[in-house]
Amino acid sequence: MVRIIIASVLVIVSVVIAGLSVWLDLSGLYYWSSGLTALLGIVVYFFPNMKAFAIRRYMRGSQFKQYSLLYRRIAKKIKLSSNIYDTAWYLVASEENINETFAQFNRVTLSNMPANIAVYHVQGALIWHVKASHKAERAHFLSWLNHVRPKQPINGLLLLNDAFSLIQRAQKVKQDYIADVKAQLESLYLLSGYKIPLHLFLCGVNKLDGIAETLHEQSDLSELSFFLEGNNQKVTEALSQAYDDLFKRLFANNLHQVSLQLDEGFKRKQLLGPMQLQYLKLSVTGFVDELFDFNGLAVPFQLESFHLVESETATQRVNLATAHALIEVNQTLLPVVQESNLKPKAQLTKTFAEHVLPASHGAPTNRWKVWQHGIKQAVMFTSGAAIVFFASWIGWQAYTYNEMLHTEFRDVHKSYKANLDNSAFNVDEPSTLVEPLTLLRSAYINFNQAQLSKPWYALDILTSIERAEHYQALYKNQLSVAIEPSMKKYLEEELFVYLELEDYLKVINVKDVYLSFSNRENKEVVLQYMSTSLLESGVMDDIQTENFIALLNDFYELGYDPVVTNDELLAIVDSQLALQDTNQLMYKYVKQLPQFNRLIDIRPALLGDTLNNTILFAIKGEKSSFLVPALYTPEAMQKLSFVPESEFMQQMVKKNHGLFQVAPTKRELTRIGNYLKYSYINDYTRFWQKYYQRLELKQSLTLQQVMTALTSNDTSPLMQLYSTLRNYVVIPTVEVPDAMSDTNVAKQAPKSLAVKAAKVEKLAKVASSKLDKQKLLEIALAQEHNEISEKIRQSFSQYQLLAGEQEAMRNEYQTFLGQLIALKAWMTNADDDVIPGLTYFKQIQKSSNFDAFSGLWLRPHSERLMQNLAALTVAKTTEHVKEKVQGYLQTHWQSAVVKPYSESIAPYYPFSLKGDDLNLNSLAGFFASDSSVTQFESDILSHFLLVDEQYQMAIFNRHTLISLDAEILQFFTQFKKMQRQLYGQANELQVQVSIKPQSLSPKLNSFTLKSADIDLLYTHGPLIEVNGVWPKDFSSEGLSVTLTDLNNQKQTHSYDGVWSLLRLIDKRKVSANKNTLMLPYQDEAGATLSINGVGDPQSLLNPLFYAQLTVPLRLVQSIN
């Protein structure tokens, strides 16, 4: 716990040191201190694990050294081959309590040898026996085997088992032993990479009663070894078969030996021995089966052989045949019999040497390790050859390099001189300096690159170091001769030009570059300015500029003496700059930035696509008045930021190095930023207000264009215009990030700790605001953006559709659009009428018929353009309606008045004095009370108002009138008057006619006037008048007047038709205002008579009465 606390304290201290370093801008030493402190805390926390790991590695290394030292001592003592693989290595595994081992004669004894390791040397083979009780050390030993003999750690494993232990019933001990052996085999398999050859030795078979006697007379003991050839699949069968074969051979051989033996006890034991081995078979096969049981995993060994060997220290023997009953009752302590005094013949060492060691060469090897060894040998050989070759190559390169330097230097001198002779080298023209100096620079760079690629050539003992000095001296001298005067003259000209152009911010920056170059300061500033200036002025192209900047950079790097400045020019510059306002210069700089001074054509977004939409609006003013500077767009506002810590302000300070030669304080930058911000807001709002005022309706718009654009298109041009403008004047605000968590610790703390908690919270807020500068900058940027957006929006608050709420804007437009749609539907319905104009005429008679769209002229709109569009729509609609109604009225006038009159009345007498007689029915039809003229007056004229002796009808908003021609009133006045005179008496045409003779020539005897019921005969007698009614009393066929002279010669004048009386009057009337008619006889005065009303123009008997009626061809004043 203490360790954890210490580690936590150290980590916290490191974090505090790092935070203070960032906050107080401390040196880098504190950062290193905080890092080391944190590392120390981590070490303290993980110290136990690190300590255990280090101890394990140390112990392993110590063990490896001990084993390696042990082997070297053994190899030295018994003189082993230097090739470790020439010696066969075997590892022994046995039970802890087994006493069987190799002969002591073969044991290698050394001073200070580990007690748990025994080493035997048998005919050139080393046998390592590591006691089973030291498992950890045994694991180290196995790892060391793989380390020291990677290709073949061991040639095989010798597994020693005691026969007496094998037949005991102590199963737990036996199981632990088998598990230990299997663990060793698996470890060896994982380390070596191949299956370990296993040789199984069953030691102490002479501990079984009769075995020693059985083997005593055997001459060939090789039968006690079974070679299984590593066939793990059928090892049990092979072992069982070999075991049975051994039993048969031993039993048959002993039967022969018994016949020659005299000792009865010895005979019995000879025959008992094979039986004892047969009893042992079950235990052996069971042991082997358990050894091969790896729960389905691959067996990590190959059982090569099985050997029966005798023990040299057998003191007790057991008879398995007599102890069988005890075994069946699980008796673990078996009864023993007397030991044998026969010397063992099948010894362990001898068996190993004769039957196991000869097969040591057949042990498998790790092929991958063999390949690794071969690869290492090849790499070593290749590396040696490469070193020799590289050394030879270096020598050759040194020779060729120095020879090349001499040739190259001569060529450079020659080329440079030739270039100077052939070029117009002039310091007043910087472009003429580039080519020759670039030639020198290329040679200088090539030499330096050659040295970099061959760094050993920079040694003093080689001639190249002298060449380097020579190159540098020549290059530096030529740069000083050309670059210095050229730069001075160029910058002085720049100062003068910008001073004349009154671009004072440029003057300030050029002056700073001029002084920096003169004093060999601010290299980056000078290089950056010259690169930009040379390209913008067109003095050089891109490649020449790049080369000139490289030359200027080398001039700085190689060093030069301070340049003498033009003090008179600087004095003039200073006097002019003293009069300038730096804030205005900075704002001018902002407006001239390339990303802001470009112009954008927003007409496609503002007015619509001319290919797919009807353009309703236009921008008045100059041809370029529709262009918008990029500075006054939301995109520019996103790039602008006047917060002192913002990237824009920092770049502005960096680029205007002349104005900010000393880094400005945060307070100064805040002051400049505020000036720029509010200047930008004022210019932004002023520009868009003027732009909006310049928008107007397009000239020569038709009603169809307006209605189609506003009601048929997917996107309304009006909404597109306002939406586009709204994007520029209503800029969305951004979310301001939270400075700290809103959790109030002081409120949640107990009352006793509230004051302290409040102080802690306050300190935490201060610390957070100091440490998280990036977050504070994000907050400041968001707040500034929202401030600018809000002020711009407030400037347009009087324009509802531009800066109002979206809902209000949508509602007003939907109301306007709904009225337009209603108007369009109304017009479409009216235009589809069978009789053009009839519906319009009927509709305009009642204002309630256009309540759905009367808001277009009754309701004032909040925006000028919408108001103008509504006024244009109403005007065009009124014009259309007026045209349709006038057309209808004129058509109706023609059909109801003009056509009947011109076809049935006007061509006939008395309306036309030369025409045929007018049918009285036609006259009655025209002047009757139910005539088409009267019907026209009732249907049409009744809807007009008589204003100042003119018929008028208002359309929509009463500002537009349909006025009838002034002659219409005269026509209907005269028509009604004539109608009353013609048919005013019981709707019949009748006129009282009085014909009275006045005189008769002496040459005449009489005259007669006859027509139907009228018969007037006058002779030189009393003047008697004749009365009648026209046309009832007159014949429809005509009238005749006969004059008879004294010789009874008659002269007759006939007048045909119903209008014959009027024809008589028209032809024989003496004067216009008299009722007298004169009837001539042979061109002399004949008879005179008077007819009442003939002299009155208003009399029906006067043909002039009918000539008074004139029908106007045009009803309305004008038809557009």
Automatic annotation (TrEMBL):
Keywords: Membrane, Transmembrane, Transmembrane helix. Residues 889-986 form the Type VI secretion system component TssM1 helical domain. It comes from the Bacteria. Residues 994-1076 form the Type VI secretion system IcmF C-terminal domain. Residues 135-381 form the Type VI secretion system component TssM1 N-terminal domain. The chain crosses the membrane at residues 5-23, 29-47, 378-396. PANTHER family: INNER MEMBRANE PROTEIN-RELATED, TYPE VI SECRETION SYSTEM COMPONENT TSSM1. This is IcmF-related protein. It comes from Pseudoalteromonas citrea DSM 8771.
